[in-house]
Amino acid sequence: MSVPDTPAGQPRKAATAAWIGSALEYYDFFIYGSAAALIFPEVFFDESDPATATLLSLATFGVAYAARPVGALFLGHFGDRLGRKKIMVFTLILMGVSTFLIGCLPTRDQVGTLAPVLLVLCRVLQGISAAGEQASANSMTLEHAPPNRRGFFTSFTLSGTQGGQLLATLVFIPVAALPEEQLLSWGWRVPFWMSVAVAVVGFVIRRKLDETPAFEQQAATEGVVKLPLVVLLREHWADVLRVIGGALVASVSTIFTVWALSYATSDSVGMSRSSMLWVGALANLVALGAIPLWATLSDRIGRRPVFLIGAAGSAVMMFLYLWSISTGSYPLTLLLGIVTFGVVYSAANGVWPSFYGEMFSTRVRLSGMAIGTQIGFAVAGFAVTFAAQIAGPNGDDWSAVALFTAALCVPPVVAALSARETAKVPTEQLGERTAGQAAQRETVTA
């Protein structure tokens, strides 16, 4: 099946929409992570002792990751049947609404145990939204991109998520500096209320984006698949397993963003909230430049070697970063935080949108990416909770957490070593095992 030419300027437009939409979407998602580490233990779990309150708060961060596989099944199905654009718009609205509602929630002092219950419900909605966001944006940019620059254009989705994290961190820096009474009463709510503007801007941008030529060609010729999940598991089950294993590398992000922040600001280390938020902000700023550079390199030398640099390198660098926190040296923590997250982790983070997406054919690409990544991300989300337990009763056993994070980087390395190299494969041949597979496969159309 030959894919029609993409109109001039459409790849750039799709990449821009993916960047901005993902930045706005993940602004919502990651302000929750900052609040879960710094504020929610006192606002929603204040009747517990401090260690238990922190553990419960970090567990609510992981709840969204548990909801992601369910959302992936639902949104992946409709994304492969109805198109990439509809899912991109839907996920943005759902994330904006659920995040705004978090800012409106009553505290435990006001309504008792109902408060954390409502918090978890809103967090589940965030998780369902995030499940379809990256898969739809990645599919949109990959299918619009020139064949020789798919790595570069799809990387805009992930540099967008880093932009969202940067924005979330910058918003939380002045909030965290508020007097304790103001912070815990109304200050923490402001970043969540700002999601209204986030949703409106993203909606306007994404409504104007065209559907991809690859999807339109698929729908016009063979027709869309009636049950994408059936076809996915029949023809691409091994690739789904590879994506699940590869997605575990996101544990580096969640440990860096949430657990390390909580550890550094704990009594055992004593760094200030604002100073540690600046570590995350500067690391994300560097990542904004590093991600497209790594992705461009993958267009030249292949996806696998770049992904391996990121996965294996992150396993080593997390030891150094967490050790630097334990020393209490802020300059050392800042330097190693930037290198770990901004540079090394960006190699895997920048290349996985093209690496995973190129494993699947057009008819099941969104389902394959959504289901595979979100199962892996679910483990990554709860890695924060496991880390809090592994860190011991005082929460300061950083070496155990570093070893745990390194162990979670092993499956991504195995997944990359076992995967096919797809950087030079024509877009219309992606996901095909043999030249005759397209003619032999059974397509169940609507």
TrEMBL record:
Key words of the record: Cell membrane, Membrane, Transmembrane, Transmembrane helix, Transport
Pfam families: Sugar_tr
Region (Disordered), start-end ranges: 427-446
Domain (Major facilitator superfamily (MFS) profile): residue spans on this chain: 14-424
Membrane topology reported for the UniProt record: Multi-pass membrane protein
InterPro entries linked to this entry: MFS_dom, MFS_sugar_transport-like, MFS_trans_sf
Protein name, as recorded: MFS transporter
Predominant location: membrane
PROSITE patterns with a match to the protein in the record: MFS
Source organism (scientific name): Streptomyces shaanxiensis
Transport among keywords: yes
PANTHER family: SHIKIMATE TRANSPORTER (PTHR43045)
Locations listed in the record: Cell membrane
Regions that span the bilayer: 55-75, 87-108, 186-205, 243-264, 276-294, 306-324, 330-348, 369-392, 398-419
Source taxon at top rank: Bacteria
